[in-house]
Amino acid sequence: MLDYIKSYLTSNLTPGSAGNMFWAFVYIVVIFLGLSVAVIAMNWLERKILAHMQVRLGPMRVGPHGLLQPIADAIKLLLKEDIMPAEADGFVFWMAPIFVVLAAFTVFIVVPFGPTHAVTDMNIGVLFMLGVSSLSALGIVMAGWASNSHYPLIGALRSSAQMVSYEIAMGMAVISAVMMTSLNQQGTGTLSMIGIVQAQQAQGIWFIFKFFPLGLIAFFIFAVAMVAETNRAPFDLPEAESELTAGFHTEYSGFRWSLFFLAEYSAMIAVSSIAVTLWLGGWLRPFPNLLTGAKWDLFFFLFPGITFLFLAGMCFYSTVRMPKHPLFRIQTIGLAGFGVVLGLIGLILFIPAVRERVQDIYWFSMKVAAFMYLYIWYRGTFPRYRFDQLMKVGWKILLPMGLGVLILTAGVGLWPLIQQTIWNR
Amino acid sequence: MPDETKPPASSPPEAEPKPTADKTVPLGGVKATTSGSVQSEAKSGEPGGVPLPGTPPTPDPGLAPPPTSPPLKAGSAPAAAGTPTAAAGTPAAKPAAPAKPAAPVPTAWNSPMVAKLKAQFGSGMEALTYLGQNYMTVDRSLIPEILQVLHNDEQFDYCVDVTAGHYPQREKKEFDVIWILYSYARNERIRVKTQIGDGESIPSSVPIWPAANWLEREVYDMFGIKFDGHPDMKRILLPEGWKGHPLRKDYGILQQDNEWVQINLGIESGQ
Amino acid sequence: MAADPTNHMEPVATPFFFYLLGGLMLIGGVLVITRKNPVHSALALIVTLLAQASIYLMLYAPFVAGVQIILYAGGIMVLFLFVIMLVSIERSQRERQFNKQWVVGMVAATALGGLFIAVYTKGRGIFPEHALPAVEAQNTQNVGTLLYGQYMFAFEIASLLLLVAIIGAVVMAKKRI
Amino acid sequence: MTEPTSSLSHLDVEEREKPFLDANELVINMGPQHPATHGVLRVILRLDGEKVLGLECVIGYLHRGVEKIAENRTYAMFNPYVDRMDYVAAVSNGLGYCEAVEKLLGVEAPPRAQHVRVILTELNRLTSHQLWLGTHALDIGAITPLFYTFRDREEILKIFEKYCGARLTTHAFRIGGLQYETYDGFEKDVKNFLTFVAPKIDEYEELLTTNRIWVERTKGVGILSGQDCIALGVTGPVLRASGVKWDLRKAQPYANYKNFDFEIPVGQNGDTYDRYLVRMAEMRQSLRIIQQAVDALPEGPIMAKVPKVMKPPVGEVYHSIEAPKGELGYFIVSDGSTQPYRLRVRPPSFVNLQALDKMCRGQLVADVIAVIGTLDIVLGEVDR
What we know:
The structure holds four protein chains of four kinds. By secondary structure, chain A is mainly α. Chain A is built from 16 helices and no strands. Chain A is globular. The longest helix of chain D is centred in the first third of the chain and has 30 residues. The radius of gyration of chain D is 21 Å and the shape is globular. Chains in contact: A-C, A-D, B-D. Chains A and C meet through helix 2, helix 5, helix 6, helix 7 and helix 8 of A and helix 2, helix 3 and helix 6 of C.
């Protein structure tokens, strides 16, 4: 048994590919927990960042700087009365949030946090991610219908129409990126998430910069479509507060509502992961081919630890600035303790054995986090599209653009071959 | 045309109150100012004690008021006597009460428009001005036509307000219905008033000014005056099914439709 | 590495998963036709489709599985539900659920059953004794090569059909173009 | 009395309308509890998909019978009540009421009072427009401007609070002038505020004016032509955005607006975007007026001689002012007693709201939200 567990450590495959059930299970648990923590952190960050964009403080009461606010919220949501409308379709009403959450979490089994850090490496990784995440539209439709109420129904209709529409443009962008993987000597492309990153490594360029500006345009299409796909501002029509109160989850409360919340944020992380994988080099650190050598390796290896130390430093800085009042003593101590924990993590990350294993995850998470920040930024800046405008953007702008990029990518990629054929004739 | 900003020359009382303003004599003691038509009303603050528009020379104030007396409530201003057509009538009233804060008096309003309307509608209407604000009291029977003429020929294209007043003391014609009109082209504001009795209806002005839609509904809601030809004559502020029209004087301030409250709100009383 | 075609995960508890998924498919299929509420029917159909996708996965046909999920479960069923939701549920529940064409149904069922039995008993000759070596890693590429190589003509015919269907739908939906 | 003898329950409007509903229509009840109806407006929408076929407003949920109350209060006692109508522009309400009664009494507020009145009213116009901008943008989905405007509105409310002790329902004016002399540093505060807020208005505009989504959401939405505006009695910025250059402050100047130099911003298309631009420009014009007023603030008494017991002579008067929402008129009938015999408020929001049906027909549900926002209604004033 121990050998079975140990045997994987020397492998250079993902646990799924290596067929190691134990490690696959460990990865699933770790990803599940990590995702939950990420959603909680995201919740706090969104409120804080949005608040600071809007010249206010955001949560400040529960814990130092409101750090415990999401936890308090979670407890509140769990303890809240679970209301089901009398006329609702009980079974479907019950199923819908579970379905959405399942769809949102399932996609993470192929997300490559590193060359070996994924539950499994599927041959159809991208396809799988797009397909399974599109299933959440079903859950939303179910929720809207089962509530037996007008606002959720309209919200569900909007959301399903929106998701189906934007999936097409999204698919075009994805295909053009997948096509780029096949532009090597063997001419063999891949849909595997890990394979795509490795292709970028092998070709020595992130796909966002490949065939400039084609890769950039494809990335742009995806970046717009993914916001629409996750029903976030400025495409948050299904839950447009001012129009449909809360859209498809108007009738949901308590725990069920929190499941929708969880699903929304993990879906955001999931699509960001796709974008990072396809265009931004996945787990690759910046300039993996340009800035090589032991010195540069060390330089980039130090990033995770430095980041955590920086966070710890911010905590200590805030601790110093806390009001000197007995009422704040516990909070001050808590903040200092949090800083110590972060600092310790940072120090641990300097240990060579650890930092080499962790740096892939670090770079991947950083890139995803940048997307998360973009999401928040959008929300703070943009008004909401109207439904017909949303459809117009999806069908009349993004889709033709996507088709064009697809054709151009194929043409540019095959140009040497075509040239050769003509030359040889 | 002149309005409150440019008081017409025919309204001398503009500056009148000032010299006497230092006297804090209650303005209710206005009897002394009257020259001819003495009014014996309204010293009490009770709203019911409104001056009856009827002044002695005009036994039936509601109908086709003789020019000697402005027919409406405002017409019962103390110094309303005097020659009706000439603005000089007002100054004549002044010396009678120099010690009192002489209230301004409605005076006749002369303008080409009024002359034209007079020619068209004859004695059914009377044009007056008070505090620089022009208004005309018209007979109930003229109501749709004169409004139509004002809108079409005189460019009163903006119906500012439609409202009403309740004067239970008047025998037959309990209600005033008042249109406040404004003309963008002339920068002029006038009021058109008419009197109707309880239970009577009056032609709607919605075909003339769509703006009157809700305003007339509110008048119906508050006074129970029905407007014929209104597209959607129903209550607007109070719930449908409410009994009573609250702005009538016989409707107490604490009064409620208890039945409605009990049925719809499930409580004993809204008070 | 991942692209290594020979290295793939050994199947785990194949019979168990096969029977589980097969059972799910059957139950879903039965529910599709027996539920009075069309939304419930559609949900049961989704269960069937997902189970089917999983069986494709077990058969080392991940591309077909992915397409099944994207197109059927994610796309077509959403549109199905879209339409069903707008239909008055009360009215549809009052309508008769089964038509009375027992004879035709029985004949068709018997024929299908006979076909299954025939395949089951004599099928060994038709199908090879052992499954073809499953090459998961090359599956998608193979599908692509076949579609754009050997079956190019059929593929293009199908796409033409779809194009006609799209144009027809647009013509029917738009009152004026 | 002719009473509608129908059923008591007034809530079954759908029931009443059933005959002309066909299967393709969806009736949606928006409000009275709805985040975007700015209070307790209830809008019954008839939809074909998301397209609005027609709508009906149900109002009165906030009806307090202000006009009835007026008949039972003395002139001075009623003064605070007017603040409760348009509670985001309480000062304007007070100005209109005080001037109407002053006109009836034949008194005029002294120049210093007039100046302070103009300053406070224009500040109030700013708060009203700022609140409008924040909530309007929020309705359209931009959540950030709300906080920006509320931050800056706070500064004005601080001035109000310092001046009269109240922030919202200020009751700042008295019949005949002002109750309170300005506090020490009032002029400095106002001047500081002017320099503070001018760049902030640019900031709002930066967020919205050229924002593509904002422009797309508001351009061509809820178009109301100048003719429609006049026919429907719509006033205020909505009228001006439709190209009618009419502002009571210029047309029939009250207070001492005729002494101040300002412009009337006018739109062209009468759509939501123009209404937005007009209000933004109006905020700048308000700053101009305040600047002039505070620079030329005269010394002198703040209260005219007004009898302790106000008994205006028998008569009636209509006086209207340019409130932030449009023409706010008071029609007061006096019977010579201490209480108004009849007091009618001509509320701009009420009349403007009538145009909602016209503006929304053929638009989408999301536009209804935008249009309700752009009309800038306050339900306290609609229902009174």
